[in-house]
Design goal:
The protein is built from two helices and no strands. The two termini are 32 Å apart. α1 packs across α2. The longest helix is centred in the middle third of the chain and has 31 residues. The protein has one domain. The protein is an all-alpha fold.
Amino acid sequence: MNQQLYYCTIGKVTVEKLDSIQSKMRDDTATDEERQFATLLQEISALAKNRLSVAENESDFSKGEAVWVERTSASHFPHIRLHGGALEDDPDRS
């Protein structure tokens, strides 16, 4: 199975399900369980957006481009893993 297609499909289905539940919430027909599920899907969506933003920022940094980076020191990039940050500690400058 194509892993990239697999993850892309999971993302699309997640967003579609979230949109569907949010529509039910606007119509005031969503169940309590659906509302809880929407909260989880919103968190997953936010984590994915954060992960993509970090990847883009680190890609630009590795190309020598100026990027905004919050640092605790000149050599450390404090990625917050629990909130969907980078998968690695620091971007490669090569």
